[in-house]
Amino acid sequence: MSILVVEDDNDISTLLKRGFEMEGYDVDCAGSGEEAMNKILRKPYSTMILDVMLPRQSGLEVCKHIREAGNDLTVIMLSARDAVPDRIEGLSAGADDYVIKPFEFAELLARVKAHERRGQSAGPADDPRLNIGAGMMFDVGIRKVETQDASVLLTEREAELLMLFVNNLGKPLSRLDIFSALWADDGGNAINVVDVYVGYLRRKLSALNVNPKAVIKTVRGMGFLYDPKDAGGTD
Q1: I need a labelling partner for 136 at 20 to 30 A (CA). Which of 13, 19, 53, 193 fits?
Q2: What is the pTM of this model?
Q3: What digits encode the pLDDT tens for the residues 33-69?
Q4: In order of start, what are the domains of the chain with their CATH numbers?
């Protein structure tokens, strides 16, 4: 597994590089957003440890750029900003996790391994192609949703959210249900992130010529309902 550490503090960068290498990871470092983007273009990484406060281009901007480019590597943000709105901003930019500085390396390592396990649980041992309704097929192994005419790649967390909906077909899920299933183990408490990621997933599905709000319905006073019947055509 290869990790890209994007951190302009040389002491922290060196500490992380040594720590992950001792755990058997292949580790590269970048001191700026521009350097990180160049490295990502030349080499595939499984995980990026991304500092929010970078010179010239912030970690938030870097994360948005790589998601817009369709890169679905795991992104774990590091920041001294611990307010709930800051965490939401990081997750909304496309991060999979958000770790507050100062932090213990052991915790960061545990989070990296947790995301690895999530990725492995959706690997080739499972049925890689699932019929999820409305003419859509979901390739679990590579997190790709496709129809006869188009396809989109999902991030790790978007794929987890989709599978949660598929596994609860026709059953309304409250925001608390979704948050507890996907985010509570990460130690977060910003439940608004559920709406953010439902929005992300709906936008991905809209590119497949299905009506995303018909597939993932908003149920007033309850939450969300996955019901792909009669969902052909976009808004």
Answers
A1: 193
A2: 0.56
A3: 989 988 887 788 999 999 999 988 899 999 998 888 7
A4: 2-121 (3.40.50.2300), 129-226 (1.10.10.10)
